[in-house]
Amino acid sequence: MKQINLSRLAMTLGLLLALSACTAGGQTTPSAGPAAPDGTAQTAETAAAPTQSPASVGTLHMVWEGSDIPSASGGQLYEPDSTYLYDPRCLTAVDLQTGIQRMLCSKIGCAHNSSDCDAWVCEAGLSLAQCGGFAEDGRLYRVCVTDPHHGMGGALLSRVEVSRPDGNGRTLLCEDFVPDGSCIDITWLADDSYLYACIQSNPGVNEKGETKNRFTVQRIPKTPGSPAELLYQWQSTRTGNMAESLQVAGVSGGQLLVTLTELPAEHTGSLAGDYAASTTTLHVLDLNTRTLGEPLDSWTGDGSLSFQQMTGGLLWTIDGEGTLAAVDPLTGDTVEQCPDLWPEEMEPRGIFGLYGRRLVVDGYDRASDREHRYVFDLDTGTLQRELPATWYKEAVQPRLPALMADDGEHLMLKVEERPVTRTTVGQDGAVVQYPSSDSVFAVIPAEDYLEGSEDWTTCTLLPAEEN
User: Helix (H, G, I), strand (E, B), or coil: what is residue 368?
Assistant: First the structure.
């Protein structure tokens, strides 16, 4: 199994937020009103969401952030077959209780190399932007998108299929939902009636020599055969090594919660300076009116925040006094406040996860060059325990288990790296050996891990080809 990028891992968010009341304040209209995939202009009727109460309350929900990050749901982890590291074609499933990985196909004698296979996602030889699957609402969706603009050429293909969670009964849901020949990545969200494909792309350089980063949203009905609807389009100009960016945080009631990062007005002279001078604001994007709301006041800090991160539908912050607090980003109300919990010498690094009434936060002690992981009990407002570092990188540096996937009840963790020697053939035909490492993964119930248990089950994975 390939190593998974965790920095963008998104979990299902479980707290309820009323998003329909969040568009107070001015509205910013997108620079270009998008057309439907067939090129015709959209009408209010075609863009309308299912009828719902103005005060409807929904779950802020993210399904899958795409790329090589797997999707966990219902006790299973879905990702492309690791035997095709550079040409993924079939879905596998890792049982998050036993740690056993299997091909998502139970047909006797199936070679897993054609569309007759229940695990099949896409044909070989494509220049892929995204290949994989995610489970939502008792159904399994599999996605195949090519990127001829940034890959090896070929045709633009975008396809979503739906099946039962075991892979059987595969049906085409939607085709041709990517609007141009570029697709860097897709974040997938869902509500009761729709899937939302939030597409990041980079179509190319314009006549001014500028590179436009594009963010589009496709709203795809869950009914097979229904066409995708392009509801919003936004472009930014890339300057040097930085670009404005629009990132999605969740969806509910036909509205997205997004963060907009803007560059400083003038280049500071360094990339680090530009990052430090950039600003990030939180907005509601209404997909029915195709308008981006004014910045939500609750996201704007006063400069004293040493840490802020969205999780569980809330904005969590740690200030200079060590107070851990959670703010409803849509109302500005403080929902949780735990004073004097965070150790003064510790730099907060990120939220590991929110499990019921327990929040797990990672920190870093610069003086000792050590990682730390703390479990906070939100009911008592206390620091419950510190979780131990369980393995050593290169036998020297202590390391915490890294979260690979989470379905809310079970965790998949990276718990070790084992040194191995690999063999390859050089350009001159000579056999070359080189040192490398294999990641070791394990599964454990979330509650057990939060209690400090290391009694996890090592995963049994499908063999990977040498590359």
Answer: coil
From residue 121, alpha-carbon distances to 169, 231, 403 in Å are 13, 26, 26
Q: How far apart are CA 339 and CA 115, in angstroms?
A: 57
121 pLDDT above the threshold of 60: yes
Largest CA distance in the chain: 69
Residue 464: exposure state from Cβ atoms within 10 A (0-12, 13-18, ≥19): middle
Q: Is the pLDDT of residue 425 over 60?
A: yes
User: Strands (DSSP E) along 81-210, which ranges?
Assistant: 91-95, 101-103, 128-136, 139-146, 158-163, 171-175, 185-190, 194-201
Highest mean pLDDT among 162-166, 319-323, 339-343: 162-166
Q: Which residue has the tokens 């050996």?
A: 433
Q: Measured in whole angstroms, how far is the alpha carbon of residue 53 from the centre of its chain? A: 29
Residue 192: both structure tokens together: 């009761």
**Angstrom distances, CA of residue 224 to CA of 71, 79, 159, 416:** 22, 23, 12, 43
**Distance from C-alpha of 411 to C-alpha of 75, rounded to nearest angstrom:** 9
Beta bridge partners of 37: none
Q: Round to whole Å and give the CA distance between 379 and 384.
A: 11
pLDDT, tens digit, for every residue of 139-148? 999 999 888 7
Output the CA angle 354-381-411, nearest 5 degrees.
20
Long-range contacts from 361-365, C-beta under 8 angstroms, 24+ separation: 361/316, 361/318, 361/324, 362/400
CB 340 within 8 A of CB 298: no
For residue 167, which amino acid is it?
Answer: G
38 exposure class (CB count in 10 Å sphere: 0-12, 13-18, 19+) = exposed
Task: Return d(Cα 205, Cα 226) in angstroms, integer.
Answer: 33
- Secondary structure of residue 132 in the 3-state scheme: strand
Task: Say how many C-beta atoms besides its own lie within 10 A of residue 333's C-beta.
Answer: 11
Please, are residues 375 and 384 in contact by the beta-carbon 8 Å criterion? yes
